Amino acid sequence: MAYKFIDNYREKGARKLLVKLLEKRGIEDKSVLRAIGKVPRHFFFDETFWIKAYQDIAFPIGDGQTISQPYTVAYQTELLHIKKGDKVLEIGTGSGYQTCILMELGAEVYTIERQRNLYERVIQVLPHMGYWPSFFYGDGSKGIEEHAPYDKIIVTAGAPMVPEVMLKQLKIGGILVIPVGDEKQQKMVTILRVGEDDFDRIELDTFRFVPLVGDEAW
Ligand code: SAM
User: Fold this and answer.
1) Is position 194 within any domain?
2) CA neighbor of 76 nearest in space, from 203, 199, 190, 162
3) How far is 156 from 162, CA to CA, in rounded Å?
4) Phi, psi angles (nearest 5°) of residue 107
5) Residues 6+ apart with CB under 8 A from 208
6) C-beta of 210 in contact with ligand 1 (< 6 A)
7) Tens digits of per-residue pLDDT, 108-141?
8) Which residues form the active site (predicted)?
9) Phi, psi for 146 (deg, rounded to 5)
């Protein structure tokens, strides 16, 4: 894949239209919309497919994986209620686009990917764009114990259930956003840790994610 890091007026214009579309689809958080308006999503596409970068669609990034649909990225991010300085664990780095959105909101991001090729690519691309999260390679279905606890955890692949171990890595008051279901479709689940052993769980809309694969997943 040949990446080109040029942000022309045409791409900037397309990005503004994407923000308007997401607003129409119900994304209300202005800071999330601002972040979507700022991060050049076409930087994650081969130049041949730049035309696709600002359509509200998921797109293949190799190794059977996808860059998430912008609406899904905005939806999950909104649910996290990111505050500047929040320590966020992202499970499923993929292209790194979601990582950039979290960092635009001021989060300190720990991100983990299990596909070697994607990991190797993202550790080049993001620093080149000026984003320096903490990158990890491996099975994120167990979270990352050594850096816990986190203010927020976001899972960007579909899980069969909520891994217990992730709940333990949340701070009290912390939020986990995770799609849970079967291979075909998942409900977006948010879990707020209200006490040591006390969790509030809400099930929201239906999505379709690639599977979360690992010891605590598929
Ligand atoms: N937000 C990402 C983006 O916009 O590019 C979405 C990436 S894709 C929908 C989900 C990613 O989760 C894939 O790259 C996949 O390899 C990764 N993944 C699946 N299971 C994983 C696991 N156990 N640990 C870490 N990453 C995992």
Assistant:
1) yes
2) 190
3) 13
4) -80, 150
5) 158, 184, 185, 186
6) yes
7) 999 999 999 999 999 999 999 999 999 999 999 9
8) 68
9) -65, -15
CATH number, domain of 116, equals 3.40.50.150
Alpha-carbon distance values, 183 to 37, 87, 209 (Å): 32, 30, 8
> Pairing mode, if any, of strands 198-207 and 186-195?
antiparallel
**From atom 19 of ligand 1, which residue's Cα is the shortest distance away?**
212
Domain span at 100:
62-207
Residue 3 lies in a domain: no
CB distance 92 to ligand 1 below 6 Å: yes
Asked, for residue 55, whether it belongs to a domain, the answer is: no
Question: Residue 137 domain-assigned?
Answer: yes
Number of domains in the chain: 1
Neighbour count for residue 217 (Cβ, 10 Å) = 20
Q: In a 3-state reduction of DSSP, which class is residue 79?
A: helix
pLDDT for 142-188, tens place per residue? Answer: 999 999 999 999 999 999 999 999 999 999 999 999 999 999 999 99
Residue 27 Cα to ligand 1 midpoint, Å, equals 23
